[in-house]
Amino acid sequence: QVLKRYLEKNFNKKPKLIEYGGNHVSRLKATKEIKTKYHFLNKKYHLSISRAQEDNNLHVVLEAYSKMPNKTLVLISNYNSFNYGIKLKEKYRRFKNIYLVDAVYDLNILDVIRSNCELYIHTHKLCGTAPSLVEIMSLGKPLFSYNTLTNIYTTENKAKYFSNVRDLINLNREINNKKLKKMGDLMFEISNRKYQWEIIKNKYFSTLISDL
């Protein structure tokens, strides 16, 4: 919506907004085999997944959780692909409450990790609908999202938002199980209403037909 308004204002165009679907993900339980490989599945954990790029704010999340030893963070990224990621891995690997997991490309394993997290942290600063965001919403997970207009629009201003380390720490202090459950339910409701592939498909079809 933010990009749509930009095009309308600056180029006098009327673009069609079509979001991204998220309901291709599955809720999966962790098997003994997967738990053996990923030990954090045996405890409560907060999860974040993104590429190791500075605009994805991994440094903000890691710094915040390094100051919260009572909270477990799992951060999945392609650390070794960028100097930024290599430095972060070196700096934060010593913290026992932080799991720095190399990129996971097996969708089944990724769905297990996402399905069993207590909370998701969406760090993307520069994105549109953001596939990873609508995917976690489809799983009905509560989330803390980086405070940018695109993320606020996607979540309909019903998630919790942070801009810096202090914000993220404060959000963790303020949250409780009841609030987490309510937020997760809201994310799932939005996903069912807006981010289903059947809805997305019909939008594309409608756009193509209108151009004939």
Structural class: alpha/beta
* Strand content bin: 5-15%
Main sheet?
Answer: 6 strands, parallel
Strand adjacency order, main sheet: 3-2-1-4-5-6
**What is the averaged pLDDT score?**
95
SSE order in H/E notation? HHEHEHEHEHEHEHHH
The dominant shape is: globular
| Count, helices | 10
Low-confidence stretches: none
User: What is the gyration radius calculated from CA atoms?
Assistant: 18 Å
Number of DSSP strand runs: 6
Helix content: 40-55%
Q: What separation lies between the terminal Cα atoms?
A: 25 Å
Please give the structural blueprint:
Elements (H helix, E strand, L loop, with lengths): L1 H10 L20 H6 L8 E4 L8 H9 L6 E5 L5 H10 L5 E5 L4 H9 L3 E4 L8 H8 L4 E4 L2 H6 L5 E3 L2 H10 L2 H18 L2 H14 L2
Parallel strand pairs: 1-2, 1-4, 2-3, 4-5, 5-6
Helix pairs in contact: 3-8, 6-9
